[in-house]
UniProtKB/TrEMBL annotation, chain A:
Source organism (scientific name): Periweissella cryptocerci
Name the UniProt record assigns to this protein: Cytochrome d ubiquinol oxidase subunit II
Any single Pfam family the record assigns to this protein: Cyt_bd_oxida_II
Lineage, top ranks: Bacteria, Bacillati, Bacillota, Bacilli, Lactobacillales
Family the entry assigns: Belongs to the cytochrome ubiquinol oxidase subunit 2 family.
Signal sequence bounds: none
CC terms in the record's Gene Ontology section: cytochrome complex; plasma membrane
TrEMBL record, chain B:
Membrane-traversing stretches: 20-45, 57-75, 95-119, 131-154, 188-209, 221-239, 338-363, 378-400, 430-450
Protein name: Cytochrome ubiquinol oxidase subunit I
Membrane topology: Multi-pass membrane protein
Chief place where the protein resides: membrane
Organism: Periweissella cryptocerci
């Protein structure tokens, strides 16, 4: 394994972590659209809160996919063909969710708007759920052949571990979204978001314990990297405790940042646990290793230079865009678009 | 049916379906980005509110097409790994790079700045706000450039070495210098401008029949037609260059587009052009043809004489060249009727565009009054019908490009059969195909419905003067 290969493994992890941190909250807001709001004015406010951002957030996933293809084509091929149906459902969810914002804005009648609000809400639920399932199944180990093709059956994809993984990502995204709503709104809906979040943190704490136990049962993380695994698990718990306390004290930005770190922590746990593999096979000999998965040094080098120059620029204008749309939205006031 | 075969057919069908659907909206959104940019720039320069309303009104259609274009684009990136995993393993070293660069330098740009444009009308000075639409359009154009760099590699592989059965990138600049890219990219860009130009002109035609907002739609129509006319010339020039290159790059594709089963012409012989025709794809003969003398020589060689190989000759050459690598049983014939028809539809559409633009511009000169123009129902109908033609022509263009490289995914190196995912079941692919089809049909229908409604409602809501009239006896108060 070369330094470049490790660097790209880390970068792909960073891109996925960035994706979950950013799109995590707009998934959460999307789900809240149908579970937290009481009237159209509140729904308008929620849609407006993520309107300028969700598209840019989603590009983190697209970039992660592209980077995976470019830097570790074997991983990309094994993962995407191996998790065909769950990934297809992610795509379907992202398609309908993606058009729903624009279509809702153009619909005249509340009833027709409602259809696209459901598209937002369901899409915002299905995508993180399926991604959570995919990532947990990936670290659990799948039946793979010598050419690294995943040949799994239904229960390889759907079992208690992957279901908990799916629910965990959904729950974390939802809480993260509620924290974003607390930053972006005032009044009744903000208070309701805080109340909900406080209750859901208790579920999350229980969930984290269950998840840790399942990681112990289903993966080799504890046997292969006990110290790192426990350290990261501790950090995940710590960030959610801080997030919870910040919610109680109404420190909205702290709770938002830490609920995002929660998601980042899960991605970190999975990537650290898998290393130096990329895809874990039931038969250890068939696991796809970073060194077998990656592109040539030439391509990795090229991609590194491009990333070094492009990523800071991307970060700069994305942060600027968040800064531009920083003020709170008042429910009932028409905004922009 | 053989199971392996049906997986390939399903994967091919999915690639065709998703690409064609994606490419209905991409040229429209790139082109509308340009047109809206032009309109908003005119507002900034001339300070005339009419242009601002035009940018906002056509901006609605732009945002719709952008949304559908974006979501169908994600499928493109994912389906290589999902349906074509062997392909991904073979070319990932090369093909992945442009895709990743596209996301990093182009897609972030357009998706962030379109947010700023969409929600920033009240927050920024006009001079800065207009920059956002131009940056978005620049981002979309860069996207197109990188995607086409990837596609060009498949049509004309360059800059790599075969190592352990994989293609390995050794010369990145070669990917960008690929002559195929510089044939495709300008053609696609002009195609985008053309599409949006005739969509704006055509929709304006429909709107003018209602005799409302005549000034607004007449101006829109003129802008659309001017951009459409310039783009038509660009299409003809780039298309011509593309055809010339095909004769040597992919002679089978060229022969099929012209319906040449047998060799045509010679050193001092002229070549007749098949205006229409039907071909027997089993026996590789022509069933019937309507020929026009000299025209093929003019088109293909810009002279009155010339020579081109027919499919049967090309087939023999390909067998001689590739039998060692791919075996004697490989079929090198492309679907002739589909390519022939697609090419002729595309070429004739270009003629229609040129004529309609000239006629439309002629009759919307200052000399003719608004009252006169809205009475020219025939003209408005022609424009209206032409709204749909660019989409047919764009689809035809992609069908030629992609069907014509049969039997290869990477021309001369990797066949379609060797590229497909070996571990995905036909059932899974059928499931995804059906659901994609239903989803696309839904999105397409909603898109057309919403565009039609935006048009029917017109720009009135944008033109409401937002400053309240304070003096109830002022002249403006009575006008409301």
């Amino acid at each position: 394994m070369t330094t470049l290969q490790i660097l790209w493994f880390v970068l792909i992890g960073v891109l996925f972590a960035g994706f979950f941190f950013l799109e995590g909250f707009d998934f959460g807001v999307g789900m809240a659209l149908k579970t937290l709001t009481k009237n159209k004015a509140e729904r308008d406010a929620l849609v407006a809160s993520i309107g300028p951002h969700w598209d840019g957030n989603e590009v983190w996933l697209i970039t992660a996919g592209g980077a995976l293809f470019a830097s570790m084509p074997n991983w990309y091929a094994s993962l995407f063909s191996g998790f065909y149906i769950p990934l297809f459902l992610v795509l379907l969810a992202l398609i309908f969710r993606g058009v729903s914002f624009e279509f809702r804005a153009m619909m005249k009648f509340e009833k027709n708007q409602g259809i696209w609000e459901w598209a937002t809400a369901i899409g915002s639920f299905v995508a993180p759920f399926m991604l959570g399932m995919i990532f947990t199944a990936m670290v659990k180990g799948m039946p793979m052949d010598a050419q690294y093709n995943v040949r799994g059956h239904f229960f390889d994809f759907v079992n208690i571990f992957t279901l908990v993984g799916g629910v965990a990502v959904v729950l974390m995204s939802y809480i993260h979204g509620l924290n974003f709503i607390r930053i972006k709104t005032i009044g009744d809906i903000r208070q309701r978001a805080a109340d909900w979040a406080q209750k859901l943190y208790l579920v999350l704490f229980a969930g984290e314990v269950v998840f840790a136990v399942l990681v112990y049962i289903y993966t080799d993380f504890f046997t292969k990297k006990p110290i790192l695994t426990m350290l990261i698990l501790a950090l995940i718990v710590l960030s959610s405790v801080v997030s919870y306390l910040a919610t109680l004290k109404d420190k909205e930005v702290v709770s938002f940042v830490t609920s995002g770190l929660n998601l980042v922590g899960v991605v970190a746990l999975l990537f650290v646990g898998v290393f130096p593999r990329t895809m874990v096979a039931n038969d250890a000999a068939h696991s796809l290793l970073i060194q077998n998965a990656s592109s040539s040094p030439y391509t990795l080098n090229l991609m590194t230079w491009i990333t070094v120059f492009a990523l800071p620029v991307v970060l700069a204008y994305q942060i600027w865009s968040f800064y531009v749309f920083r003020e709170r939205l008042t429910v009932g006031k028409k905004s922009g678009h | 049916m053989d199971v392996a075969l049906s997986v390939i057919s399903l994967a091919r069908f999915q690639f065709g379906m998703t690409t064609v659907f994606h490419f209905l909206f991409i040229p429209l959104s790139i082109g509308l980005g340009l047109i809206v940019g032009v309109m908003e720039t005119m507002y900034v320069v001339k300070k005339n509110e009419l242009y601002k309303h035009m940018a906002q009104f056509w901006g609605k259609i732009f945002l719709l097409s952008f949304a559908v274009g974006v979501v169908t684009g994600i499928i493109q990136e994912f389906q290589f790994g999902m349906n074509w995993s062997e392909y991904s393993r073979f070319v990932g070293d090369i093909f992945g790079a442009p895709l990743a660069i596209e996301a990093l330098v182009a897609f972030f740009l357009e998706s962030t700045f379109i947010g700023l444009w969409m929600f920033g009308w009240d927050r920024f000075k006009p001079g800065l706000h207009v920059a956002f639409i131009w940056i978005t359009t620049l981002g979309s154009s860069l996207s197109a450039l990188w995607i086409l760099a990837a596609n060009s590699f498949m049509q004309n592989p360059v800059g790599f070495l075969l190592k352990n059965g994989r293609a390995q990138l050794v010369d990145f600049p070669a990917l960008l210098k690929n002559h195929q890219l510089w044939l495709e990219f300008p053609h696609v860009m002009f195609g985008s401008f053309l599409t949006a130009g005739f969509v704006v002109a055509g929709m304006s035609g429909f709107a003018l029949m209602k005799k409302k907002n005549v000034k607004f739609f007449r101006k829109s129509m003129q802008i659309g037609l001017i951009i459409g006319l310039v783009a038509t010339f660009g299409m003809l020039a780039t298309g011509d260059r593309h055809s010339l290159a095909l004769e040597t790059d992919q002679p089978m594709k060229f022969a099929a587009t012209e319906g040449l089963m047998e060799d045509s012409g010679g050193k001092n012989k002229s070549q007749a052009w098949a205006l229409a025709g039907q071909y027997d794809e089993k026996n590789h003969t022509s069933v019937w043809e309507v020929d026009v003398p000299y025209v093929l020589s003019l088109l293909a060689h810009h002279k009155l004489t010339g020579f081109n190989k027919g499919e049967n000759t090309v087939n023999k050459e390909l067998h001689a060249k590739y039998d060692k690598k791919f075996g004697k049983d490989m079929n090198y014939y492309v679907p002739t009727n589909a390519l022939f028809l697609s090419f002729h539809v595309m070429a004739m559409a270009a003629g229609v565009f040129g004529m309609v633009a000239v006629v439309g511009l002629w009759f919307s000169r200052k000399k003719y009054t608004d009252e006169w123009l809205v009475k020219q129902k025939w003209l408005l109908w022609v424009l209206g019908v032409v709204t749909f033609l660019p989409f047919i022509a764009n689809t035809a263009g992609w069908l030629i490009t992609e069907l014509g490289r049969y039997p290869w995914v990477v021309y001369g190196y990797l066949t379609i059969a060797d590229a497909v995912s070996p571990n995905v079941s036909a059932g899974s692919m059928l499931f995804s195909n059906i659901l994609f089809f239903v989803s696309f049909a839904t999105l397409g229908a909603v898109m057309v419905y919403l565009s039609a409604r935006v048009l029917r409602e017109g720009p009135d809501d944008l033109m409401i003067d937002e400053t309240p009239v304070t003096d109830p006896f002022a002249e403006e108060a009575f006008k409301k």
